[in-house]
Design goal:
about 500 residues; two-stranded antiparallel sheet; 4 strands
Length: about 500
């Protein structure tokens, strides 16, 4: 038991630290929101350091089969902790300027992070549900943290209502899988379905409901309806948090459920069809809907939907390479989206936040370094070489084409659709750069670039621009994580 507790030290540390910060905030809430947020960032970085040093070489099934401590979960936890730390760091100056003195925000961020870490280590349907709900309940409140703002309150309410619907779908799917297999343990379920026919209707319907609930969490079409409104209405740092960490956790959990439990030759074609539909629909909607957007946050919302579609291409291949390259894509996407949101947070005119793409007119003339950083992020999201986004897409398309060459000819058509969607989506990314560099400025930009935002932007630009020089740490880490998943 002591070894198991040591292996989950990052989660325990975050829980204790979150409760301590909550008590501190209640007793000293006046003017302490900045301090509590800084302490929360430090706590997340300490947990990140511990998680990085644990280094799970083999799979350890802990707590009577409830928790899986392997290389796959460790890799995802590192990404989740890093994304959460950067998101909270970005929020410090924004919360002060907007006078959102809510010490609860960083505490909720910590609890949501714990929920995500539980999700990616789930080895039981009950653990899966507990982790997912711990994350979701915290995110509902974070979306409406600016309760004096009508849009923020509306965003939180919409997210809560639709999130409750997805939770109901998840529970119904879990009940069906339990009813037909007799267990909630992933290992027992995997053994049970291996002896069933792939057309076992009860288990298949249960799997569909579970996948639908997880698709809601990653904003995959047709379960994306909450994303544009919540992204626009929530405070910008909260939107950045939503766009990065929860997607990593939900996609990781989706991989564990599909490849780890239903990854046999009989069952894989069943869920691959669902993943292909989700992927193609997300890429196409993200491409076409983003073209007509005028609000920068709604644009990034549809961009995130499209990127989820590209990430799902790796899973749709149903191979170890596909999962590895999906993890690489998620890592690079995390830096791209956090960097873009950090730059948006740094841009203001006459003391107000920028909302529309047209507000970026002439940005390069006032702040050439920031505008160059934004251009790097936009070009990378569009998949233009030699930036990191190009290699992320190149990897997942490579895995898709290799799987197609092995006999899954349908994947050739999926790859063609993905490439066409990438070309279409490049329009609105390049349009942002065009507005920054070629349109006449309407007013001067304030751009109060504080040290916190500078740190996030610098880290993001370095990773995105220099990934081509040293890709091996991320790629090799993703391959080792995948080997751990497939082996388990």
């Amino acid at each position: 038991m002591s070894q198991q507790l040591f292996q989950i030290f990052p989660e325990l540390f975050l829980l204790v630290a979150g409760l301590a910060l909550l008590i501190f905030g209640v007793s000293k809430s006046q003017g302490k929101s900045r301090l509590i947020t800084m302490l929360a960032v430090i706590v997340l970085l300490i947990a990140l350091a511990f998680q990085g040093n644990l280094g799970h070489g083999r799979s350890l099934i802990a707590f009577d089969g409830l928790y899986n401590l392997d290389g796959f979960s460790s890799f995802l936890k590192i990404l989740i902790l890093f994304a959460s730390a950067l998101s909270l760091l970005m929020s410090i100056s924004y919360m002060e300027r907007e006078e959102i003195n809510r010490f609860e925000y960083p505490v909720l961020g910590i609890f949501a992070t714990v929920g995500m870490m539980v999700m990616v280590s789930a080895q039981n349907l009950m653990t899966l549900y507990i982790g997912l709900e711990l994350q979701s309940l915290a995110l509902y409140v974070m979306a409406s943290i600016n309760r004096d703002n009508l849009k923020s309150s509306e965003a939180g309410l919409k997210y809560f209502i639709l999130g409750a619907l997805s939770s109901g779908m998840l529970l119904y799917g879990i009940s069906l899988i339990y009813g037909f297999t007799g267990s909630t343990d992933f290992a027992v379920i995997a053994k049970a379905v291996s002896t069933m026919e792939s057309g076992q209707i009860g288990v298949l319907i249960g799997l569909v409901f579970v996948m639908s609930a997880l698709a809601f969490k990653v904003s995959a079409v047709p379960f994306h309806m909450w994303t544009p409104d919540v992204y626009e209405g929530a405070p910008t740092p909260v939107t950045a948090f939503f766009a990065a960490a929860p997607k990593i956790a939900a996609l990781g959990l989706l991989c564990r459920v599909t490849m780890g439990v239903f990854g046999t030759e009989e069952w894989a074609p069943q869920w691959q069809q669902i993943i292909i539909v989700l992927s193609v629909a997300s890429m196409l909607l993200g491409a076409f809907a983003g073209v007509v957007q005028k609000n920068i946050k709604r644009l990034l919302a549809y961009s995130s939907i499209g990127h989820v579609g590209y990430a799902l291409l790796g899973l749709s291949a149903g191979t170890a390479d596909g999962i590895s390259y999906m993890l690489v894509y998620l890592t690079l996407y995390m830096f791209m989206t956090l960097g873009a949101f950090a730059i948006i947070l740094a841009m203001r005119q006459n003391g107000r936040m920028l909302e529309n793409i047209s507000d970026l007119a002439g940005f390069s003339r006032n702040h050439p370094i920031l505008s160059l950083s934004l251009a790097i992020m936009m070009f990378s999201m569009a998949g233009i070489p030699p930036l990191a986004g190009f290699f992320g897409k190149f990897y997942v398309f490579t895995a898709l084409l290799e799987a197609a060459a092995d006999g899954a000819t349908l994947l050739y058509y999926v790859a063609v659709i993905g490439m066409l969607a990438s070309v279409i989506s490049a329009f609105y990314y390049i349009r942002v750069v065009k507005v920054c560099y070629f349109d006449e400025p309407a007013d001067k930009f304030d751009a109060p670039l504080d040290s916190e935002l500078s740190s996030v932007i610098t880290v993001s630009v370095v990773v995105v621009a220099l990934f081509i020089i040293c890709p091996s740490p991320i790629v090799e880490g993703a391959i080792q994580a995948t080997q751990s998943l497939i082996g388990s």
